[in-house]
């Protein structure tokens, strides 16, 4: 891919007469995209629409602004259009992807019933089902980002104490685990994971069927599969489970500061977006009772 990136930047400079600032912007976006492709063991020439969408979600998860994500998509789109023109790829995977709206939108959230339906789909009748059950229960129970979940090692889970140690850059936070998540996780760790891993030196908590650390792409596809099995029409991604986790905690009376800590938000304003999903009856009471409502 490095060779094609070099040719693409030369094309922008020589043919399109792009300014230095524009070139630097394209280079930054494409290099970051290339790192993601390599780290997830993907092939840039075989990327599909869902792979690009997963990358855009990754940018959102690591805190990129909508304007940055929109610019990144534009850079990637130009790159793939260049590849199509030069017959390096047949189809531009960005064709049908719309740029994210710059205004802050309400996060997509599942109802409690939809979450229950989704989590009921994996059946622990085989190794994969046991793993998937534990993984979905864990994602909803902790509200962790996908990149944080797939980065977890087995030693980060404290089954006896009932919490998980989440590492995010130089910071770490302890997140409690509910009864159902602990039960599913215990079964996976004791019964499925030892069979899935072929090398006892593997430290990853969640592994694929080859015994290697699960990738973000793999996680995304598993969630999509069970969403379809549950016949849920909403678009469900791993990040939607994170939004649902925060919203349901808030709706059930959890303290906003506690939710902020569990989500790992450095700024509480990021957590306050979930306030809009609070019980409408409570809002009505407030509007009627508060003199400055």
Describe the structure.
- This protein is mainly α and 293 residues long.
- It folds into 2 domains: 2-85, Tyrosine recombinase, N-terminal domain (DNA polymerase, domain 1, Orthogonal Bundle); 112-280, Intergrase catalytic core (hpI Integrase, Chain A).
- Helix content is 56%, strand content 5%.
- It has helices at 2-14, 20-39, 49-61, 66-85, 112-119, 127-142, 146-151, 179-196, 216-229, 238-251, 256-263, 268-271, 280-289, and strands at 157-158, 163-168, 171-176.
- Strands 1-2-3 form a 3-stranded antiparallel beta sheet.
- Helix 1 runs antiparallel to helix 2, helix 2 packs across helix 4 (66-85) and helix 6 packs antiparallel against helix 8.
- The longest helix has 20 residues, at 20-39.
- The protein is globular.
- The mean pLDDT is 86.
Structure at a glance:
With 293 residues, the chain is mainly α. Helices cover 56% and strands 5% of the residues. It has helices at residues 2-14, 20-39, 49-61, 66-85, 112-119, 127-142, 146-151, 179-196, 216-229, 238-251, 256-263, 268-271, 280-289, and strands at 157-158, 163-168, 171-176.
Which terms summarize this structure?
293 residues, mainly alpha, DNA polymerase, domain 1, hpI Integrase, Chain A, 2 domains, three-stranded antiparallel beta sheet, 13 helices, 3 strands, 5% strand
């Amino acid at each position: 891919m490095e060779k094609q990136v070099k040719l693409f930047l030369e094309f922008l400079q020589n043919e399109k007469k792009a300014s230095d600032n524009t070139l630097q912007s394209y280079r930054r976006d494409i290099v970051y995209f290339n790192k993601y492709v390599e780290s997830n063991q993907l092939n840039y020439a075989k990327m599909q629409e869902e792979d690009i969408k997963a990358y855009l979600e990754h940018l959102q998860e690591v805190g990129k602004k909508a304007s940055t994500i929109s610019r990144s998509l534009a850079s990637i789109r130009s790159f793939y259009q260049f590849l199509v023109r030069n017959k390096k790829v047949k189809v531009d995977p960005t064709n049908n992807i719309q740029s994210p709206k710059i205004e802050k939108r309400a996060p997509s959230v599942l109802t409690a019933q939809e979450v229950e339906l989704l989590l009921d789909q994996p059946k622990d009748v085989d190794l994969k089902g046991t793993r998937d059950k534990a993984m979905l229960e864990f994602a909803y129970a902790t509200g962790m980002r996908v990149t944080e979940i797939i980065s977890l090692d087995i030693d980060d889970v404290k089954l006896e104490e009932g919490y998980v140690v989440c590492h995010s850059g130089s910071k770490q936070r302890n997140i409690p685990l509910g009864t159902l998540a602990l039960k599913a996780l215990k079964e996976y760790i004791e019964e499925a994971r030892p069979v899935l891993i072929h090398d006892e030196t593997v430290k990853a908590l969640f592994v694929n069927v080859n015994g290697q650390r699960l990738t973000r792409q793999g996680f995304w596809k598993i969630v999509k599969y069970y969403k379809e099995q549950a016949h849920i029409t909403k678009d469900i991604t791993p990040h939607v489970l994170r939004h649902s986790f925060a919203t349901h905690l808030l709706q059930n009376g959890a303290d906003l500061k506690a939710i902020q800590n569990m989500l790992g938000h450095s700024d509480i304003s990021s957590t306050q977006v979930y306030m809009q999903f609070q019980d409408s009856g409570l809002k009505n009471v407030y509007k009627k009772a508060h003199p400055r409502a």
